[in-house]
Amino acid sequence: MSQQPIAELHPQFSSPGATPRPWPDVDEALTKAKISWLSSVRPDGRPHVTPLPTVWSFGALHFCTGATEQKARNLSRNPQCAITTGTPQADEGLDVVVEGAATRVTDPDRLAALAALWKSRHGWDFHPANGLFVGDEGNEALVFAVTPAKILAFGKGEPYTQTRYTFT
């Protein structure tokens, strides 16, 4: 992101005297995340949640999926989604929720940069072709970006914090 978002602490869900979690902590948590959870909505309104690797870059959280997978079908009808990541500990770490609309990434230069990040962060080999990621075995994946409309960060351990980040 070119500029830092506006941070607002929710005092009702934070420790007394807590301050908003610094944005660099959230940026680092998103960058280092190995697994995130994508929540999308099925056509009948039921939720669909699935784990997947993500890449935080270009001011958005990115993921890839096959065109016929449930998440891709859901997002084609309703791009609104949430992606979460964090730690399993109750009293330490940072949980992060990114809310926004998923949009397809098809620009060859951006796909090439993202493929390099997928390799360095997750060990997956992709190359861009025809607006997609293509794997070594010829498997194709759509690439999506979720530019945050809002991010919630939950700091666990004293001081507990619930911080909302909004983007202008």
Automatic annotation (TrEMBL):
Q: Name one GO cellular component term.
A: cytosol
Q: Which Gene3D superfamilies match?
A: Electron Transport, Fmn-binding Protein, Chain A (2.30.110.10)
User: Oxidoreductase: present as a keyword of the record?
Assistant: yes
Q: Per its UniProt entry, which superkingdom is the organism in?
A: Bacteria
Residue intervals of the Pyridoxamine 5'-phosphate oxidase N-terminal domain: 26-150
Q: Where is this region: Disordered?
A: 1-24
GO molecular function annotations of the record? coenzyme F420 binding; oxidoreductase activity, acting on the CH-CH group of donors
Instruction: Identify the InterPro entries for this entry.
Output: F420H2_bilvrd_red/Heme_oxyg, Pyridox_Oxase_N, Split_barrel_FMN-bd
Listed Pfam families: PNPOx_N (PF01243)
Keywords attached to this Swiss-Prot or TrEMBL record, sorted alphabetically, are:
Oxidoreductase
Q: What is this protein called?
A: Pyridoxamine 5'-phosphate oxidase
The organism encoding this protein is Paractinoplanes atraurantiacus
